[in-house]
Specification:
The chain is an alpha+beta fold. 27% of the residues lie in helices and 31% in strands. InterPro entries: CytB_endotoxin-like_sf.
Length: 198
């Protein structure tokens, strides 16, 4: 039985399976809470044994809690893409492509959940009002434009929160106010990257 990757990945290459193996240990094993330990992942990136083949991209910042409030998935996806490509992922992916990736994922949450890329949670605000959230984790890779044989990688999670009580209502979103929270990190690997260096 093949493990579910738990990360929706794009720009497939032979190294992607190694990257998924590298990321997987930092994802919670609770099926109702598939959160990623960002601190654990960032530490693993920095401490990876093969330091020459894996590193944080110089000048690439982490994104923590990018927040955006909109009424359509298209608008919120566009805002997230603008913010990520402005300073986290500008070398990795263009805004138009990233917008399409996010919009496609959140327009098809039922399938994304079945694949293990997305998960639902019930929320409660400071006033005790019950709502819910859907989370989706992504991995994007692309060849480096500056360093031959190197891939640039972006890992990010989008958490959409709304005043929505039932999970099924997320599968047919209309015009409803949603807040997006995003966390992301970028790094580079060589094309022969191994999750566990030999």
């Amino acid at each position: 039985m093949v493990e579910q990757p738990l990360v929706d990945h794009y720009h497939v290459s032979p190294v992607v399976e190694q990257l998924l193996q590298f990321i997987r240990p930092h994802i919670s094993t609770d099926p109702n809470d598939l959160t990623l330990s960002w601190e654990g992942l960032r530490t693993a990136i920095k401490l990876h044994v093969d330091r020459q083949s894996e590193k944080i991209i110089p000048g690439l910042n982490d994104a923590k809690n990018i927040q955006s409030k909109h009424k359509t998935i298209a608008d919120i996806a566009d805002t997230i893409a603008i913010q990520l490509t402005s300073y986290v992922a500008k070398k990795i992916i263009d805004k138009k492509t990233l917008t399409a990736i996010i919009e496609r994922a959140f327009s098809n949450l039922q399938a994304q959940e079945a694949l293990g890329f997305a998960w639902f949670e019930v929320t409660r605000d400071s006033d005790g009002k019950i709502g819910s959230a859907f989370n989706h984790r992504f991995l994007v890779t692309t060849p480096s434009p500056d360093v031959p044989g190197e891939l640039l990688c972006l890992v990010f999670t989008v958490r959409m929160v709304g005043n929505i009580r039932n999970k099924e209502d997320w599968f047919q979103l209309g015009n409803v106010e949603l807040t997006a929270q995003v966390e992301a990190t970028g790094f580079a690997v060589k094309e022969d990257f191994k999750a566990q260096p030999e």
